[in-house]
Amino acid sequence: MNLSLFLPVSELREIINHDGILLYQENYILSNIDDVTKDIIWRNDSITMFGKTHPLPRLTAWHGEMGLTHTYSKIKMVSTGWTPVLKKIRDQLEIDLNTKFNSVLVNYYRDGNDHMSYHSDDEKELGQNPIIASLSFGATRKFHLKHRYDKSIPTKFFDLKDQSLLVMKEELQHFWLHKISKSTKINEPRLNLTYRYIY
Q1: Distance between alpha carbon 86 and the CA centroid of its chain, in Å?
Q2: Which domain holds residue 120?
Q3: Beta-carbon neighbour count of residue 108 at 10 Å?
Q4: Is 51's pLDDT higher than 90?
Q5: pLDDT tens digit string along 101-126?
Q6: Within-domain flag for 73
Q7: Which terminus of the chain has a lower count of CB atoms within 10 Å, N or C?
Q8: pLDDT tens digits, residue range 9-46?
Q9: pTM of whole model > 0.90?
């Protein structure tokens, strides 16, 4: 797997600088979706909302330091360790972003029907102001952001392209919600890696 940079990470473009920081860069690494999915252990979990149980509209996986746990939407995930590829990407991100990551949540969107509703990554185990590095592979999907409290701020949205890097940090998770919307026009899969540090 080739992890050569197309562009220096210093060229991360600022999308949000109010109530948190969000940065985005296209063409971060040379890799394709098949390289990254090798050896990943997939889960097809369900979630209960308003008394009804539904399958999550995507496949998920949790990798990182052995035995590390992560719970969201009452779903508990236990890491079975790193795959070689996920660890290589982690090591490169730690150098480029000058921070530590000990885990990665992997989401596999099989087509445009798979999606992620508005949410924030604000679980207590992520710490007060988490740094999350999000890598995209495969189909381009629309990323939406809306302010949690200030309704006068317009919703922001832009494309998350193949091989791109998104960085969320400082107090962003306290003030902003984000989602991946449905699109019936998309038939190709998208892979998303969200590296984080669990305390």
Answers
A1: 13
A2: 9-196
A3: 21
A4: no
A5: 999 999 999 999 999 999 999 999 99
A6: yes
A7: C
A8: 777 999 999 999 999 999 998 888 998 998 998 998 87
A9: yes
Work out how many domains the chain is built from and give that number: 1
**Inside any domain, residue 1:** no
126/121 Cα distance (integer angstroms): 8
Q: Is the Cβ–Cβ distance between 16 and 176 less than 8 Å?
A: yes
Residues 6 or more apart from 49 whose CB is under 8 A from it?
Answer: none
127: Cα separation from own chain's centroid:
17
Stated length of the chain: 199
**63 in a domain, yes or no?**
yes
Separation of alpha carbons 133 and 58, rounded Å = 19
Backbone torsions φ then ψ of 91, nearest 5 degrees: -60, -40
CA distance 93 to 86: 11
Tell me, yes or no, whether 30 lies in a domain.
Answer: yes
CB 111 within 8 A of CB 186: yes
Check which CATH number belongs to the domain holding 22 and give it. 2.60.120.590
Those residues with Cβ within 8 angstroms of residue 109's Cβ, 6 or more apart along the chain or in another chain: 58, 115, 139, 141, 180, 189, 190, 191, 192
